[in-house]
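Forwarding the complex inputs:
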Amino acid sequence: MSAEAALDHGHAEGHDDHADGHDDHGHGDLVENNYMKVPNIKLAIWTFLGSECMFFGSLIATYFFYHEKSITGPLPQEIFSIEITSISTFILLMSSWTMAMAVDAIKQGKTGRTVNFLLATAVCGTVFVSFQVYEFWHFYHMGLALQTSLFGSTFYTMTGFHGAHVSVGVIWLLIMAIMVKKGYITGEKAYSIESGGLYWHFVDIVWIIIFTFVYLLEFAKPLSDAVK
Amino acid sequence: MSHGDAAKNPALHDVASYHPHGKSYLRTGVILTLITAVEIGILYVPQVPADLLPPIMIVLAVVKFAMVVGLFMHLAEDRNVFRIVFIAPLFLALATIIVLGMMVNRHWDHYAKTYARVFTQKSSIERLHPEKLAAAAGAKPKLKAEEYDKLFADAKGDFSKGEAIFKSRCSACHRADGGGMPGLGPNMTDDCYKHGGKIYDFVNVLMNGVPATAMVSMVPAQITDQEATDVALYVKSLKGKNVADGKECEGEKAP
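Prediction (whole assembly, two chains):
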C-alpha cells in the first residue's frame, strides 16, 4: 500500500488487503468511524457536549462562587420573576419533546413530518430567546448591567452564553429543516438530525440546571425572609 | 455506496425496522412538565419547611436531567463510548461546582449541619471547622452585660480601634459610616434593634452570627474576642447618630 493510500485508509476503495474484518460495510463512507463502529458525527457531538458540560459547569460554578458577594443591588430576589421564567422554561422543555418527535419522524422516513417538528422546535427556541431578550432588557432597566455587580457579571455571562447556544441551535434547526425539505437528508441519514437533536437537548438540560439552581433556589433559602 | 448497504452499516439508519417512540416521548414530555410544575408550585406552599426545599428541588432537577439525557438523547440505550465521552466531563463539571460552592457558600454550613447529622455522626464541617460549630452551639460573650457597659464608659469616647475594624470588616455590608445597605446589613446608626440593644447583645451577634443571613459568626474565624468587644463598643457609640440616607428601621425601635 502506498503512503497516499495509507493516509486514505478508511475511506478509500481498494484496501481489501487489510484484514480488518469488516470490509463488507462502511468502506467509502466518511460517516462511519471504522474503529468504534459509530457515526463519526454522533461521536463528535457527544464529545463536544462533554466539553460543553465543563464550559457551563465553570460558568455556573463562578455564579455560585460570587453569589451574595455583590455590594450593590439590585439583588436576584428583587428582580427575578419566577412567573415569566417558568413560561419560557416550559416552552424550552416542550421544544425538547418536538425535537425528539422530529428525530422519531426522520427515523420512520417521514420527511414532511420531520420538517414540521423541526420548525416547531425552532419556533419554541425563538420564543425562549425572545423571553430572554425581554428579561435582559427588563433587568437592565431595573439597574442591573454587566458591570454593575458580581451578580450582574456572572448572571449575564452565564445566561447570555446559554441564550447564544439556543440561538445557534435555532439556526442549526432551520438549516436541517431546509436540508430535509430539499431531500439532502433522508431516513437513512437520520443520524444527521439525531446529532442536531443531541445539541438541542443539551441546551435544554443546561437550562434545567440554571432554572432550578439559579432561579428557584434563590427563593428557597432557609428562612429567606431573614435576608432583608 | 448503494442503499442496499444500509442494514449492514451501523452509521446508516434502517428505516424499515424502526419502531416509533412517539408515545413514550409524549409520556416523557408530560412527566417533565409535571415535575417542573411541582418545582415551581412547591415554592408557593407555606407548609413545606424551607429547609426541605433545596434538597427536593435538587433531586427533581437531577431526575429531569436524567430523563432528557437518558430518554430523549437515548444515552440510556446507546453505545458505551457516548456515555464515556459525556459523563466523564459531566462529573468534572459537577466536582468544580461542588468544590467552589463548598468554599464560599454560607448555606453549606447550614445544610451540612442540618442534613449531615441524619446520615453520619459528624459532618465534614464539624471535623474541619470545630470552632464554627462551637460558635453555632451558642458561644457566650466572655463578660457580663454590666461589664461591657463599664468598658464603654471607661473608653471616654475613644473607639478608634473598633472603628478601624468596623471600616475594614463590616463596611462591605453595613457601609463605612454604618448606614446599612439595601438587601444587606441593617443601619447601625438608628435606634432600631433586631437582636437586642446592649453591647452584650452586639458581642453575642458577632460571636454567633445570625442564622441564614449574611451576618456570619466573626469570632474566632475572622476577629478575636478582644476585637469583637472593640467593634461592639464602637457600634454602641454609633447608635442614635442617624447618618444621612441610612437604611430604614429594622427590628424594634428602642423606647
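Residues 1-29, 222-228 of chain A have pLDDT under 50 and may be disordered.
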